[in-house]
Design a protein that fits this description.
CATH architecture of the largest domain: 3-Layer(aba) Sandwich
Distance between the termini: 98 Å
Protein name: Cyclin-dependent kinase
Keywords: Kinase, Transferase
GO molecular function, one term: kinase activity
CATH class of the largest domain: Alpha Beta
Strand order of the largest sheet: 1-2-5-4
Helix content: 10-25%
Radius of gyration: 25 Å
Number of helices: 4
Shape: elongated
Order of helices and strands: EEEEEEEEHEHHEHE
């Protein structure tokens, strides 16, 4: 007599390996992506087979954020960090990106231009009652222009005295006013949403040291010039980060007046006399701007215009 016994069993394997993010925009870590861009994930191993999902990452407020990547500095207009309005601009998208299974897609909608997103792909399974996960995160910005063929120099005035004549009622932080909550959010979107670098867009950021030449100024609030060759992330972190709070120095009717002549002189100093690059200057000024020596200012502006400079005042 022969007795045979059979037993079947499955060896379970917790989620392991590395996830891979695939997209036709290969330089998304360094340059903004066009609308319609898709990201898909693959990779990872495990038994039971892995289940995948996308999760959007949000920046925590700085007092409660213990991470080392300082996500808030790279996500303008997404709350977190130094706090602020949930929707700083009326045309900001209220929805997240489109998710269709493994695909994460940027909608072809102009509202998404200039927005920056952080998403994490998660592959998981459950082994003996315990959930195991592998993760991969991406951060990318949506291109403002419909093409990467943008080549220009862009100079922007970013003084902590800007637009300080009015106070925001009920601001989450009384030290931060319109400059920090709205204007700086817009400028960070410009920096992250324009094709960046020597072949594309370069930025001059004019800060308070153009009004005061004293060396004791905090290096975090000194002007940033083309030749520093900072990366996009380094540039925005110089403007807004855990270490750099976007305060307004004074506000109300006694606000300090920004001297227009100092701005123009700083631009003349840093604008090469001979260059083929288009140079645009963005100045946001309110009624408290100091226009002393207006004739000299007009003369200096005409000199800038002969060098191919285009001046936009708002």
């Amino acid at each position: 007599m022969v007795v045979e016994c059979y037993s079947e069993f499955t060896i379970q394997e917790p989620a392991n390996g590395e996830l891979t993010i695939e997209t036709f925009t290969k330089d998304y870590e360094y340059q903004p992506v066009p609308q319609g861009t898709e990201f898909t994930y693959s990779g990872g191993h495990g038994l039971p087979p892995l289940q995948y999902r996308w999760e959007r990452k949000k920046a925590a407020p700085y007092p409660h954020d213990s991470s080392t990547e300082d996500l808030a500095s790279l996500l303008p207009g997404n709350e977190g960090g130094w706090d602020g309005p949930k929707q700083p601009f009326s045309d900001s998208p209220t929805n997240s990106l489109e998710i269709h299974g493994a695909r994460l897609r940027v909608p072809e909608n102009s509202k998404y231009r200039g927005m920056t997103y952080a998403y994490t792909c998660i592959g998981s399974n459950e082994v003996q009652g315990r959930v195991h996960e592998i993760r991969k995160s991406i951060i990318f910005s949506v291109m403002i222009c419909p093409t990467k063929r943008v080549k220009m120099d862009l100079s922007i005035l970013l003084s902590r005295h800007l637009m300080s004549s009015c106070e925001i009622s009920g601001a989450p932080d009384p030290d931060i006013q319109f400059y920090g909550y709205y204007f700086l959010t817009f400028i960070r979107q410009l920096i992250l949403g324009l094709p960046y670098g020597r072949r594309f867009t370069r930025f001059n950021i004019l800060m308070d040291d153009i009004f005061d030449s004293h060396d004791q100024l905090d290096p975090q609030i000194k002007s940033i010039w083309f030749e520093e060759n900072l990366s996009r992330s380094e540039l925005v972190k110089r403007l807004y980060s855990r270490k750099v709070k976007p305060v307004t120095l004074d506000s109300g009717c006694d606000a300090w007046t920004v001297p227009l002549q100092s701005i123009v002189r700083a631009l003349m100093k840093k604008r090469p006399a001979k260059t083929k690059r288009r140079h645009l200057i963005l100045l946001a000024l309110d009624k408290f701007v100091n226009v002393d020596n207006l004739d000299e200012v007009k003369r200096d502006v005409r000199i800038l215009e002969t060098r191919g400079v285009e001046l936009f005042c708002r």
